[in-house]
Specification:
This protein is an alpha/beta fold and 315 residues long. Helix content is 53%, strand content 11%. The strands form two sheets. Strands 3-4-7-5-6 form a five-stranded mixed β-sheet. It is globular, with a radius of gyration of 21 Å.
């Protein structure tokens, strides 16, 4: 009975805290400091806000931690990050930006699920944020930005891709980013591009397709090596090289996906992450916090707008 009373009291407290956060969020939205994207949460999302994700984010934020990693449902993590962290500037859109293997430093895919529907301005923001992250984390001096499309011609794609191409080409001509044009999915992992810009719906399909293809190919290779005594002997000579290939394709070595566009580093780890993946996510969060990506984005918000409001600020 006493335990039940504590649970009820805690539930009431969490509801009160959430209501207060929601009220402040609406006030800020009205004053133009924060623009909600997506819109303010539905009744279901408000109920989810009382889950442990919000509690953990709240506690960690107010304990002064500079990085957060979570193994959570994406919608809960995204909503929680919005409530506790907020956008870097009005009109911004946060984006998930995983690093895919390409045989080199890796290639960033932005967005891959945070924004199912996007505007051309959001894709422009993704290109800037991806460039900053690629520069600081992957070590690309002048990241090559490509727009994912169904062809390389300027006229390809839907109205969204055409408008985004025009904006990206404009800022590229001004020297603000290194836009190389449209790229097809077949060239995404070829090493020709460092940042792939797309909407969250298309990016998520591409990400899951890549994951599925990697699992299929690794399984087929394993089957070939174990199919006969001759192949097993051949596998022994290739064991070291095959291990390197497996490590390059292993999502557990990466750790998680950075959520860009908010004021604190947040890493989203996969729901099926093992202990190695969690370790990698923590390491990635520390690297993200120390790299100065968010600070550079904050200092160059005006530079990322159209037209450019200020000269780029270097670290």
């Amino acid at each position: 009975m006493e335990r039940m009373q504590r649970i009820v009291k805690a539930s009431v407290l969490y509801r009160a805290l959430f209501a207060l956060c929601l009220w402040f969020g609406r006030q800020w939205q009205g004053s133009g400091v924060i623009q909600w994207f997506p819109p303010p949460p539905t009744r279901l999302e408000r109920a989810e806000s009382e889950s442990s994700i919000f509690t953990r984010l709240w506690r960690r934020l107010h304990r002064g931690l500079s990085e957060i990693y979570e193994v959570l449902h994406l919608r809960k993590l995204f909503a929680g990050s919005v409530f506790q962290k907020c956008w870097l500037w009005a009109g911004a859109a946060a984006a998930l930006a995983p690093i895919l293997p390409n045989g080199g430093k890796g290639v960033m895919l932005i967005d891959c699920g945070a924004n199912v529907e996007c505007t051309s301005e959001y894709l422009l923001q993704f290109a800037f944020m991806g460039s900053f992250y690629s520069k600081h984390i992957l070590g690309c001096a002048n990241p090559r930005v490509g727009l994912l499309n169904n062809g390389t011609e300027e006229t390809k794609g839907t109205e969204l891709q055409k408008q985004a191409y025009t904006l990206l080409k404009r800022v590229s001509d001004e020297g603000r980013i290194n836009f190389i044009g449209n790229i097809e999915g077949s060239a995404a992992l070829s090493g020709e591009v460092d940042v792939i810009v797309t909407d969250g719906f298309t990016g998520n399909i591409m990400l899951k397709s890549c994951e599925g293809m990697i699992k299929f190919l690794m399984g087929q290779l394993k089957g070939v090596f174990l199919s006969s005594t001759k192949n097993k002997l051949a596998a022994l000579t290739l064991k070291g090289d095959f291990a390197k290939l497996k490590d390059m394709m292993d999502v557990n070595k990466v750790g998680g996906t950075a959520l860009l566009g908010i004021s604190k580093p947040v890493i989203k780890a996969h729901g099926s992450s093992n202990d190695e993946a969690i370790f990698s996510a923590i390491r990635q969060a520390v690297q993200f916090a120390r790299a100065g990506v968010i600070e550079e984005i904050e200092k160059n918000i005006d530079y990322m707008r159209l037209p450019a409001g200020a000269a780029k600020t270097e670290e």
